[in-house]
Design goal:
The complex is a heterodimer of chains A (393) and B (319). With 393 residues, chain A is mainly alpha-helical. Chain A contains 17 helices and three strands. Chain A has two domains: 167 residues, Butyryl-CoA Dehydrogenase, subunit A, domain 3; 210 residues, MetI-like fold, CATH 1.10.3720. Chain B contains 14 helices and 13 strands. The chains are: A mainly alpha (393), B alpha/beta (319).
Chain lengths: 393, 319
């Protein structure tokens, strides 16, 4: 109880800080960038300037949200109003950015671009802080979840109504539509493959380390080495090994195993994914209630049955927390595939960087951030679901 | 029948259990009693091979347990521990069904057995079977622990301070129910505790341990009348007589004959279903020298202080 009280008090601090950040971001000089073409440097403008009257509405929304967050209103009312204001911010700013972009194109030429600048992204982050804080005042349940995803729905609605077509990142998307979805799927399959391998290896090594104390330093020692090896160095080290294998063994060649491409990417990403899963599995099993494992042995369960019926189910929420870390980390890490001929969303990032086309970089980065956030939330829900038996849940 | 012969457990240079020998007869309730560190839990855990002895043997109905698969051995012995050790990820139904499942019973038989066991320990199956352990109180959880241990109808029940973590009122109720269950089911029970009251109330025989040695193994009455050492005498203290009186029912005592004209309402009286200790308390409370014993309101005889004390002195059988 004291714990949730603390969360609720802190929520006020987070909410008000979010509003302060939001106001600063609205005034920041580079809210939107107007460029003559996609690689041109661009003319910065703050959101307040760019949005005209709606800019003042944005400022007022932040001020009102801060006032409400600080107010002595009932928690439910405070939570509801502040969440709704927070949800309005991404919808308002994206809609306004979209129409500012359209106006700019109409007043100049069709190759002109409007990019979303730092002020815009900080505004989104501030809105996330505000919603995150304000939902802590609401009762958990379906309506709270629905409120959290309100801005996502709003963004999708604006986008499908064509309100965003002139924004830089949307233009890049339109130009790369077919390759975007191909690389998106490829990216996802790297993440899924690496986390699947990481899950199997992580469970095995975590259980092994928990059950055989003498092996614990060996297991985590080697995982630590893998963990601190820089990604590119790791791929570089794998290169001669994999090319050698594929030259000598026909099967590997047929599978497309080469020094570059998908093979080193999967190996490297799954090596990183093992660590958090193995750590959490080990910690969860090693810290199980002694009375429970004692009773399981005492009623005559064998070691495997004990693992399957008692230890792994009880460790599951903590294991899933490890999978969550691995997923988020791998989603970002899979960018590297774009650099070593493996494809994925990383190719937009590296291509964009080489052309100094910021919007193309964002075409790779924004879906990665969205995916990471989605995985984080989804697995969080799964953690709570699998921990239903604990008295806290 | 469990025969423990020269059982010894050493951890490095420390001897936890030193050459303990004792026999638990079929259907007997044996309590392993002693201060902490006396080795009582280690002895218990060597019976189901949760701990492997350094030397010595445990025979179950004449068969050396060292020759059995530990898992199979444990499935023939119910096991109840202090913090219940219920599996938090399973419903009460599945918890109780654990050993029958391990033994491969069919589903209908398991379902029936679970209901029967929950009834036996005083929990309504309809209310409790689908709950999870965290939804139970300490006393309820411990009942489920007992139900789980009894589910496959094992001939032997091992209990390691099962009531140590529940509140005193619940503990007392659970003790009385344990006594009732033992009288009904006649399981061979080995029960570890450091609580003297609990031991004297429940035990047919008490094995008193100190620093891994067996000091004495006897019925509580015998421990009182013929303590084997000063340690035994000192351990049970002055109150042992009173505690033993709580074991015996007044109806088991030979009453003195009664003047037929006396009625139960007229003089200080007690029902014959009370324990000797309660009768003594009644005697002192009424500031009387004798009490009329009644059975459902009809006078049966007379007891005085002398009868009550003598009932223990001749070592008559426990109620």
């Amino acid at each position: 109880m004291a714990d949730t009280d603390l969360v609720r008090t802190r929520a006020r601090v987070v909410a008000i800080s979010g509003c302060a950040l939001g106001i600063a971001a609205a005034l920041a000089p580079s809210g939107l960038l107007f460029r003559a073409n996609r690689v041109f440097r661009g003319e910065p403008s703050s959101l307040l300037e760019a949005f005209g009257a709606w800019g003042w509405v944005l400022l007022c929304a932040w001020l009102l949200a801060a006032l409400l967050a600080a107010s002595p209103l009932r928690e439910r009312i405070r939570g509801l109003t502040v969440t709704l204001l927070g949800a309005a911010v991404p919808i308002l700013t994206l809609w306004q950015a979209g129409s500012a972009a359209t106006d700019y194109v109409e007043s100049t030429s069709t190759i002109a671009r409007t990019s979303l600048g730092l002020g815009f992204w900080l505004t989104q982050f501030a809105a996330y802080m505000l919603i995150f804080a304000a939902t802590a005042w609401l009762e958990p349940g379906a309506s709270r979840v629905a409120l959290t995803y309100l801005p996502v729905a709003g963004v999708v609605a604006i986008a499908s109504a064509g309100g965003l077509t002139e924004i830089g990142i949307a233009r890049e998307y339109a130009n790369n539509m077919s390759s975007f979805w191909r690389e998106f799927r490829l990216h996802l399959s790297y993440v899924a493959g690496a986390v699947a391998v990481g899950l199997v290896a992580g469970l095995l090594s975590g259980v092994l380390a928990a059950k055989k104390r003498s092996l614990e330093p060996v297991v985590f020692g080697s995982l630590n080495v893998l963990q601190v090896l820089p990604t590119l160095a790791f791929i570089g080290l794998l290169n001669p090994v994999l090319s050698g294998l594929s030259e000598r063994i026909a099967l590997f060649e047929d599978l497309g195993v080469r020094g570059v491409g998908w093979a080193p990417v999967i190996i490297v990403l799954s090596s990183y994914a093992v660590y958090p899963i193995a750590r959490n599995t080990h910690a969860a099993i090693a810290s199980l209630d002694r009375a429970v494992t004692d009773a399981a042995r005492g009623v005559g369960m064998g070691r495997l049955r004990m693992l399957a019926e008692i230890e792994l189910p009880l460790a599951l929420p903590v294991v899933i927390a490890g999978v969550r870390v691995a997923l988020v980390q791998t989603t970002a890490g899979a960018i590297i595939a774009g650099l070593v001929g493996g494809g994925g969303l990383g190719i937009f990032v590296f291509l964009g960087a080489s052309e100094t086309a910021t919007d193309l970089i964002l075409l790779g980065v924004v879906p990665i951030v969205a995916l990471a956030l989605f995985f984080d939330r989804a697995l969080h829900g799964l953690e709570r679901l699998t921990g239903f038996w604990s008295s806290a849940g | 029948m469990i025969e423990i012969a020269d059982l010894t457990k050493r951890y490095g240079s420390f001897t936890a259990v030193d050459s303990v020998s004792l026999t638990v007869e079929q259907g007997q309730f044996t309590v392993l009693l002693g201060p902490s560190g006396s080795g009582k839990t280690t002895v218990l855990r060597m019976i189901n091979r949760m701990v492997e002895p350094t030397s010595g043997r445990v025979l179950l109905n004449g068969v050396d347990t060292a020759t059995m698969r530990p898992e199979s051995l444990r499935r023939t012995m119910g096991y109840v521990i202090q913090n219940t050790g219920l599996f938090p990820n399973m419903t009460i139904r599945r918890n109780v069904a654990t050993v029958p499942r391990l033994l491969g019973w069919d589903r209908r038989r398991i379902e029936e057995r679970v209901s029967e066991m929950l009834d036996l320990v005083g929990l309504d199956p309809d209310t409790y079977a689908s709950k999870y352990p965290h939804q139970l109180s300490g006393g309820e959880a411990q009942r489920v622990g007992v139900a789980r241990a009894l589910a496959a109808d094992p001939p032997v029940l091992l209990m390691d301070e099962p009531f140590g973590a529940v509140d005193p009122l619940t503990r007392e109720r659970l003790q009385l129910e344990m006594k009732r269950l033992h009288a009904k089911l006649r399981k061979t029970i080995v029960f570890v505790t450091h609580d003297i009251d609990e031991a004297v109330l429940l035990a047919d025989r008490i094995a008193l341990l100190r620093e891994g040695h067996l000091e004495q193994y006897a019925a509580p009455e015998k421990l009182w009348i013929e303590p084997a050492s000063e340690f035994v005498k000192g351990f049970f203290g002055e109150n042992l007589g009173l505690r033993i009186m709580a074991r015996h029912c007044l109806s088991s005592v030979p009453f003195k004959p009664l003047d037929p004209s006396v009625s139960c309402a007229a003089a200080p009286h007690v029902e014959d279903s009370v324990t000797l200790k309660e009768a003594l308390a009644e005697l002192v409370g009424a500031k009387a020298t004798k009490l009329i014993v009644c059975h459902e309101g009809a006078p049966r005889g007379v007891v005085d202080f002398e009868t009550l004390v003598k009932a223990l002195g001749d070592g008559s059988a426990p109620a």
